[in-house]
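dumping this here before i forget
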Amino acid sequence: MAKDTSNLQALAPIVSPFSVLATDPKALSEGEVAILVDSLLHPDLDPQTTRVALAEVQNLVREHPNAPTQPWQVLSDLGFTGNAATYQASTNSSLSWVLKHRSGIPISLAVVLIEVAHGLGCEAQGLNHPGHFLVRINQALVDPFRMTLVSPDLEVFKSAAQAPGATPADIGLRMLNNLKYASLQNQRWVDALGLLDHQLAMRPQAWDLWFEKASMWQQLGSHSSAALICQALLGEALPTTLAASVESRLTQLQGRPPEVLH
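structure:
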């Protein structure tokens, strides 16, 4: 039976469209998860516009004779490639932007490739490989950034070939991570906190994310909010290392002088 997280959930005020993935990591397709991420970047954009754009790409690929066996090559022929010039730009995590400009980062291009492959009746799933998101289509391993096959002779092939597939929830978490860390690098703490709340909606028992939320509240100067999260966390069955970090942080927070609100 899942552990009761009511104490922590009381500290998560937002209602998130990602919460459906908390009970079923495959409740949405990879494309629909990416559209939800896109809606955070472009709240005024009609999601149906992006669905139509994705369907148009699927139709273009389907018309190609090599589509059933090499959909990645067809996407490459259509101009889909990695955006090395502005790799860190948040637009690379926007599915609508990626479809329009046919450029992106591995995980956003992977979503396009997976949706195209599924439309062709192929088995396709992302691989949450460290540092570089990959796609397995039938028995082929594809680098979506280059839209090329990964050679079986490479070490990355050997390490990724037997890796478990990434669920749509995994993809959503990783896409939100990219946006969150971009916000942190630019010291947009409130934006990062909002993105983190969407991640927690998907993974309410991700204790490391809760600890990250406490750290963000501390960075924002709300030591009482950070302390509340740490206190609630200590009521959970935390890994030993994380529990020690939480205890240390709580001691630090409790030793601070009372907050003065201006």
